[in-house]
Amino acid sequence: MGSLCREVVTLQLGHYSNFVGTHWWNLQDAALTYDPDAPPGELQNDVLFREGQTFGGHITYTPRLIAMDLKGSLQTLRQEGSLYETGKDPTAITWEGNVMVHKESLPTKNSFLLDLDKLDVSMTQTPLGAVAMETVNSRLERTQKGYRLEGSVRVWSDFLRIHLHPRTISVIHEYNHDGEAHRLEAFGQGEALLQGSVLEDLEDRLHFFIEECDYLQGFQVLCDLADGFSGLGSKVTEMLQDSYGGRGILTWGLAPVSHPDTTPMKELYHLLNYSLGMVHMANNSSFFCPLTLKGGLGRRPTQPPSFPHLNYDPSLWYHSSSVLALALDSITVPYRLRQNSTPMWEFADALAVSGRKVVAAYGALPFPMTQGSSLPDALGDCTDALPWKPLSACPELGDGHCFGQSVTLKGLEGQSLVSQLRPGMQPPTQLHSLDLSSLNTKYSVQLVSSPSKLTPPFPQIFSQSLGPQGFLQNQAPTPNKRSCAVSSLPVLTSLQSSPALGPWLSELHRGASALDPRRIAPSFLSQGPELTDFQESLEQLRLLAGCYRNDSGGMMRSSSEEDDDG
Questions:
Q1: Per-residue pLDDT tens digits for 493-510
Q2: What does the pLDDT look like over 196-208, one tens digit per residue?
Q3: Locate the DML1/Misato tubulin domain: which residues (predicted)?
Q4: Strands 248-255 and 216-224, how do they pair?
Q5: Is the predicted pLDDT of residue 377 greater than 50, yes or no?
Q6: What is the pLDDT of residue 148?
Q7: Cα(469)–Cα(457) distance, rounded to whole angstroms?
Q8: By C-alpha distance, which of 339, 336, 449, 446 is closest to 1?
């Protein structure tokens, strides 16, 4: 008898969110096991995926997902997908008149997509009943082919390796993905979108995925924070709260390190969108977590975080989104576990206490652990601090104080949780005398043996110091030479509600408050919000920052903050 499956519906709003989401779903697909004799894994796949059937009778397993993007953003991907094109839909209307054909040059596919097409063709010729055992996933894995897609990824569908349900992709035709005209740049534009046909379309898609759930636990919302999608996400989360208020709504605000076509004026728009989107989505969600590799959300961000064992290009969306997807794969473990899972609303309630709806993420990607060592040894090597880096542009204060925290360490397969000491040998640290398997129940820590599994086309952004399983190698690596690709990775993540968020939110408030959109960006408010609503939102941001003062006298405060309170 299987454990209760609490389903989740995922929404991806915006182009960068779909970049992160594509890597995320590729990771989930890589972890699927199709062998009926294999023992069940630690994570329950049905939380995220739904089972269906094509017109030809083939069983499908697709994400329970709604992905919204703009006109021109799909490139080679068909909006309705290709899973359900075999056979004839009995409800379809047949046109008997003349047909005029207009030929249009299609975007070219990269090497990965061309290989994927060949595998799809061979799978359609597989007898019914064998498809579940032989998938694109397993065939790609057997080819062991590496792809260097850095120069050919233009949009997120260029590295999407799974099939999507026809109800998944929603294209907003009012705005363009590329070009100078009709761009979705301001918060008010996004807010105004969720009405009429756009609202009806989203409601129809939500009802389709929700009605087949037995025990819906909530929604994962990935939303672009820098452009008009921040306004759309604010309205979408408001609708979810109004219609499904008893469910968990976990919202992740995504921001790339840089935009390819940015200007100083667009950067001002980004700052205003960050501020308004964060306030509104935090208010409408169980919690809100910014996810970005930017050094800050203000006008002068510091350098992106440097991970000791990653060689990634922060300016490449294909790279930065893969790092954030790896972190998200670990952070979301608690409500996806097969046994002893924590429901979304309970997970959020433990973090978002006393109005502190904004939380910050940190990650060690990979968690530095030598093959064959023990967890106490690895933690003992972190003498000054744990090796995680900011994933929300919010540095830690360093005092270790948290109002709430959720830590996940994923990928301990084959590693010992206890220190292997010789008889009579004294433990070198207190850690070495503990059985760390008890952390799961005593603290908000999840230890998961299965790592994040990496398969093509995940970018090979790893240093030579890592072996194929993502562990540190005992011997020094040969310069400029890797025997084989990194196929899995141990990941340590932390989700925190801490006093560090107070000064961080205050800085965001001061930056946005210093801008008068009527003078420097008059078109920003042309479709809303009203100036009084804009000012009220900034005041809510200031009050939100004040929630993070700790009991011993508060967060670090500058003289300007004291003046603000005056």
A1: 999 999 999 999 999 999
A2: 899 999 999 999 9
A3: 152-337
A4: parallel
A5: yes
A6: 85
A7: 17
A8: 339
pLDDT band at 74 (very low <50, low <70, confident <90, very high): confident
Q: Average of pLDDT values for 59-84?
A: 83
The residue type of 480 is N
Q: Which long-range contacts (CB under 8 A, 24 or more apart) does 471-479 make?
A: 471/366, 471/369, 471/370, 471/371, 472/309, 472/368, 472/369, 472/370, 472/371, 473/370, 473/371, 474/370, 474/371
Q: Which of 244, 213, 194 is nearest to 4 (CA)?
A: 213
**262: alpha, beta or left? (left if phi > 0; alpha if psi -120 to 50):** beta
Q: Quote the pTM value.
A: 0.88
Q: Within 13 Å and on the Cβ side, how many CA atoms surround 209?
A: 31
* Bond prior to 308 in cis (omega within 30° of 0): no
| Contact (Cβ atoms closer than 8 angstroms) between residue 112 and residue 456 | yes
Give span(s): CATH 3.40.50.1440, the chain. 7-83+133-350
Rounded distance between C-alpha atoms, residue 288 and residue 536, angstroms = 19
How high is the pLDDT of residue 17? 98
pLDDT in tens, 537-562: 999 999 999 999 875 444 444 334 44
Task: For residue 207, give the H/E element and its range.
Answer: helix 196-211
DSSP classification of residue 220: E
Integer CA distances (angstroms), 325 to 374, 464, 479, in order: 26, 22, 29
CA contacts within 13 A on the Cβ side of 484: 10
Whether the CB-CB separation of 488 and 453 falls below 8 Å is answered with: yes
pLDDT, tens digit (0-9, with 9 covering 90-100), for 308-329:
999 999 999 999 999 999 999 9
pLDDT in tens, 97-125: 566 655 555 678 877 888 887 776 555 55
Q: For the sheet containing 216-224, what is the strand order? A: 169-176, 65-71, 7-13, 216-224, 248-255, 287-292
Q: Is 554 left (phi over 0), alpha (psi -120 to 50) or beta?
A: left
What is the token pair recorded at 531? 């100036």
Is 7-83+133-350 assigned to CATH 3.40.190.290?
no
The pair of structure tokens assigned to 210 is: 């929700």
